[in-house]
């Protein structure tokens, strides 16, 4: 039976939790990376493997090795662990910029590197990188430092797409605006009920991850407000 396997980080909250549940409902087997592993209530048939994962600790090779030993394959990566510190590029301290780069850029790059051979072996490997509309434009001073890292996340998606194309690997940057999560609610007064629901992002990932190699989407931009470009 051809049951594909996805690794999802940040899977215990926010967008990552909804993506994991949606992929599970689609029939995927999952390896869930969480700082504090906790089996989801919806995993009623043991299709989820849990791994204690901290995006700052360089654990990606160990995670990939353990997941591959469990399932014998890896078909997709959805690294949802993220960090947002709302400061301008002037006010942000060096260690704050480094912390965001570590989680938003370097960790997903390490995960892709660690899983590259299994993704190639799949013949239709998928990497869905949660970017942000902050990776497409800088809307305010206080989003500047975060936007710097998310521009790098979007660039990473394009770089992985280029590197993996001939091996059947397709990478997509998912770029939402405000999504109704605790992270977004902590940095804006925009009404939560007017933000994009995380289940909508999960449904988009479910669509994109299942597209054939001949229907590649490099970027998927999602917004809850009208902007000139997005």
UniProtKB/TrEMBL annotation:
Coiled coil: none
GO molecular function: oxidoreductase activity
Keyword terms of this UniProt record: Oxidoreductase
Record's keyword annotation contains Hydrolase: no
GO cellular component terms listed in the entry, alphabetical order: membrane
InterPro entries attached to this UniProt entry: NAD(P)-bd_dom_sf (IPR036291), SDR_fam (IPR002347)
Family of the protein in this entry: Belongs to the short-chain dehydrogenases/reductases (SDR) family.
Full protein name: SDR family NAD(P)-dependent oxidoreductase
């Amino acid at each position: 039976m051809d049951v594909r396997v996805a690794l999802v980080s940040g899977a215990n909250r926010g967008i990552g939790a909804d993506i994991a549940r949606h992929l599970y409902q689609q029939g995927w087997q999952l390896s869930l990376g969480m700082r504090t592993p906790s089996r989801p209530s919806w995993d009623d048939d043991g299709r989820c493997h849990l791994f204690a994962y901290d995006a700052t600790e360089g654990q990606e090779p160990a995670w990939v090795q353990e997941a591959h030993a469990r399932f014998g394959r890896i078909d997709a990566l959805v690294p949802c662990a993220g960090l947002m510190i709302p400061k301008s590029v002037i006010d942000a301290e060096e260690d704050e910029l480094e912390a965001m780069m570590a989680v938003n850029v370097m960790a997903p790059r390490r995960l892709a590197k660690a899983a590259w051979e299994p993704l190639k072996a799949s013949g239709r490997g998928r990497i869905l990188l949660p970017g942000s509309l902050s990776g497409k434009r800088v809307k305010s001073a206080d989003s500047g430092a975060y936007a710097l890292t998310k521009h790098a996340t979007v660039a990473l998606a394009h770089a992985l797409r280029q590197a993996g194309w001939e091996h059947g690997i397709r990478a997509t940057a998912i770029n939402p605006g405000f999504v109704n999560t605790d992270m977004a609610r902590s940095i804006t007064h925009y009404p939560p009920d007017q933000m994009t629901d995380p289940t909508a992002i999960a449904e988009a990932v479910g669509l994109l991850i299942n597209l054939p190699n001949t229907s590649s989407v490099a970027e998927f931009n999602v917004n809850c407000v009208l902007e000139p470009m997005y």
